[in-house]
Amino acid sequence: MSVLDGIVAGAREDLEARRAVVPEDRLWERAQEYGQRAPAAAEVIDGLRGTDGLRVIAEIKRTSPARGPLADIADPAALAARYAAGGAAAISVLTEPRRFHGSLEDLETVRSEVRLPLLRKDFVVDAYQVVEARAHGADLVLLIVAALGRRELADLIALARKLGLVPLVEVHDEQEAARAVDAGAEVIGVNARDLRTLNVDPDTFARVADRIPAGLVRIAESGVRDPEDAARYARLGADAVLVGSSLVTGDDPAGAVAALVAAGRPA
Ligand SMILES: O=C(O)c1ccccc1NCC(=O)[C@H](O)[C@H](O)COP(=O)(O)O
Prior knowledge:
Elements: H1 3-21, H2 24-37, H3 41-47, E1 55-60, E2 63-64, E3 68-69, H4 76-86, E4 90-94, H5 104-113, E5 118-121, H6 127-135, E6 140-144, H7 150-162, E7 166-171, H8 174-182, E8 187-191, H9 204-208, E9 217-221, H10 227-235, E10 240-243, H11 245-248, H12 253-263
Parallel strand pairs: 1-4, 1-10, 4-5, 5-6, 6-7, 7-8, 8-9, 9-10
Antiparallel strand pairs: 2-3
Helix pairs in contact: 2-6, 4-5, 4-12, 10-12
The protein binds ligand LARABZUK.
Enzyme class: lyase
GO molecular function: indole-3-glycerol-phosphate synthase activity; phosphoribosylanthranilate isomerase activity
Family: Belongs to the TrpC family.
């Protein structure tokens, strides 16, 4: 079983346990409630476009299967506020509990303190998790092509949009990028990390981005270590970078985000 398959199996077990406690129709009510005060999806998408420079999506990430423990984040809202002060365009909150030590409570706490768009970063394979994301204050939801069949991907994209959420569709190779485009994704993340082997290949974005038509939002994910990496992705045409490990392991999250934003400005 690949790492991704193992994580998805755990996510399915966990979501069934939550569904037994909170039925989906209760979540719908909360999701619609948040939808009334949430930014419009078009506004969220436009905020990620790198028209005048690279955007930074800064991640709340405590630990990772690839690297083990990263940071003991006792107050995710305080960290998100620092990211916002540094100029982040959006915050990614890892909500997966088993391997990343995240939670929906983290998402909700960050929502209560920060006005930026929030991404629920998890292993979403069921409609329940999409409704749950909105109910806990997400504006974007991650959908990983490698974890979903064609029909499932199309259905989850449609559901996300119905709820006002922006689906961030994640790919790792050219074939997956073609599937994301065929499914009508407007925001596509190219993950340099192969979720089956955990290897990070910094050339992935350069290889895959050509398959993503102009006009769609292209995000380079994983392995961004410093401003030089950000500048390289900006030159390659990325609208945004999604950064976790290097931000949570540093001692100045606001300064680190500001440095990435500065490095991604056009010369
Ligand atoms: O981070 C991992 O080890 C990992 C392993 C298996 C599946 C997903 C994983 N990470 C999720 C992500 O996509 C990253 O958290 C995100 O892109 C940020 O990456 P990084 O800046 O390298 O922490």
